[in-house]
Amino acid sequence: MSATPELRKVLVTGASGYVGSRLVTALLSHGIDVRVLVRDPAKIVGQPWYEKVEVAVGSATDHAQILHALTGVHTAFYLLHSIGAGPRFDEVERKMALTFGEAAEEAGVSQIVYLGGIVSSGGNKASQHLASRAHTGTALAEFKVPVLQMRAGIIIGSGSASFEMIRHMTHRLPVMITPKWVSNRTQPIAIRDVLYYLGQAAELPQPVSGTFDIGGPNIFTYGNLIKEFAKVAKLRRRVIIKVPFLSVWLSSLWIGLVTPVPVALARPLVGSLVNESVVDQRQSISQIIPPPSSGLLTVDRAFELALSKVEHHEVESRWSDANAFMPPWQKTQSDPAWAGEAEYHDEQVVYTKASLTSLWQSIEEIGGDRGWYGADALWWLRGLLDRLIGGVGLRRGRRDPRYLRQGESLDFWRVESLRANHQLTLYAEMILPGKAWLQFTVDEVEHEGQTLRRLNQRASFQPKGVGGHLYWGLVLPFHRLIFPKMAKNILKEAVHKDRKASGESGNTKGAAG
Q: Residue 312's Cα: distance from chain center in Å?
């Protein structure tokens, strides 16, 4: 007999990713005992659910580590992918799935739930991305553990890669020149409905094997989906011109320039648009899980909710939160600094009478729409260069305008560590011949007979090869323009915040009197 839902232990892989992090929240709200599998716990320390879950550390290709993570687990959610692992990512994904399936069988797991992509049974040959998604499901099912595979098309939600592509293209391009397969059909689904189905799968009375499609109530062509977004966002009607000569490669390059989604991710996503992604009713999930009592969200309602989350800065997770999209040539930040590498520094130390609270707030608000406290044209140029050579650029922005979370992306940086009111360390995810960090440390010190707040701003670079050393020499003059101004403007903003707070408190006091 299967364990009752409240006694089940559930494992969520990919917990630092877009769907995985939200699924953890949903499962916890149902009172389910959750364990998460991550390669680096530091990537999820900032999650609001971090203290409520059990954390297992391991690599998806290490059998012993996966077996340890799966021991005692009833239902395992497989949400792993390796799109950013290079041109042969499909081989990596198959190896990961086989390792996981074998370990799940050995650990006595009752149910595997896998979220894949809808693969059309006819028409064009499936893209490498969709074919790999299908092969992953097949590899998981090679073992004795029942595998429930849910297949979804475009997922609409604040922060999803598909939504960000549509949102930025539609806002920036009133006239679009598109490939002819923009007329292909798709059946999008809202992220909250995806989470509903996944959450219900954790509470099935008996294990289920099979493949089931999930989708919302509306079917659109990709072109009409863009027009529908423009309507919901109250933009002028977008003009779409179809041409026969735009390849996947050219389309992904264009998307990489006008949206936050880098070319490395845009290419497999665009390649998947060649295929229609419409739910096969013979494989509908309603056979085992009924739809939500309030009904599935329509596309326009899903767009409205996603836009509202963005507008009110309530984005829970984003596609860029996971490290899966880091280019394969990018070295990991966990490499030790003592591994025989040179290290260059640019350090600015400044003092202020501003409060520690205001100083820290000014630091934590850096990036995104706020900018980088001066020399914005140079930052923009560096971001553009990064995009042109296949990097992430500056357009990833930030999840929230005021607060950062350890492990999340921030323009072309990632928050490597964060200790509130003391230290913020950013790791560069731009394309570089080496590794780079930007660190801010604040504390209170006695300076020239006064108790002041000190800001230590430190840019560090570990070059790779001769090219790395040359790169540092080339950018050093620009650093002389950027970093001193950044430190001074952070202090100015902190003083401004103090003055504003003082004025507000004074006004409030007067009104109360």
A: 18
Q: Work out the end-to-end distance of the chain between its first and last CA atoms, rounded to an integer number of angstroms.
A: 68
Enumerate residues 6+ apart whose C-beta is below 8 A from 97: 78, 80, 135, 136, 137, 139, 140
Question: Which amino acid belongs to residue 31?
Answer: G
Judged on CB neighbours under 10 Å (0-12, 13-18, 19+), 61 is middle
CA distance 440 to 424: 5
β-partners of residue 149 are 114, 211
Over its C-alpha atoms, the chain yields an Rg (Å, rounded) of 24
Assigned token pair, 93? 């994904």
Angle, helices 465-512 vs 356-364, to 10°: value is 130
| C-alpha closest to that of 46 among 399, 378, 478, 365 | 399
Residue 283 in contact with residue 211, Cβ under 8 Å?
Answer: yes
Q: What is the DSSP string of 26-66?
A: HHHHTT-EEEEEES-GGGTTTSTTGGGSEEEE--TT-HHHH
Question: pLDDT tens across 82-116, in order?
Answer: 655 555 667 888 899 999 999 999 999 999 999 99
Q: Are 221 and 186 in contact (CB under 8 A)?
A: yes
Tell me the residue ranges of DSSP E strands in 375-512. 409-410, 413-419, 423-428, 434-447, 450-463
Rounded to an integer, the average pLDDT of 26-55 is 91
Whether the CA torsion 416, 419, 420, 422 is positive or negative: it is: negative
Least confident of 25-39, 76-90, 181-195, 299-313: 76-90
Quote the distance between the C-alpha of residue 74 and its chain's center. 27
- Say how many residues make up the chain: 513
DSSP, residue by residue, 191-222: HHHHHHHHHHHTT-SS---EEEEE--S--EEH
Q: Give the H or E element holding residue 510.
A: helix 465-512
Residues with Cβ within 8 Å of residue 472, at least 6 apart in sequence? 344, 434, 461, 463
pLDDT digits (tens, 9 = 90+) for 435-482: 999 999 999 998 888 899 999 999 999 888 788 889 999 999 999 999
> Is 279 exposed, middle or buried (CB count within 10 Å of its CB: 0-12, 13-18, 19+)?
buried
Q: 227: helix, coil or strand?
A: helix
Handedness of CA 321, 323, 328, 329 (dihedral sign): positive
Residue with tokens 């085992």: 288
Nearest by Cα to 471 from 459, 480, 462, 458 = 462
Walk across the sheet containing 147-152 and list its strands: 54-57, 33-38, 9-13, 75-78, 111-117, 147-152, 210-214
Going along the chain from its start, the domains and CATH numbers come out as 5-323 (3.40.50.720), 337-512 (3.30.530.20)
SS3 100: helix
Contact at 8 Å (CB) between 110 and 147? no
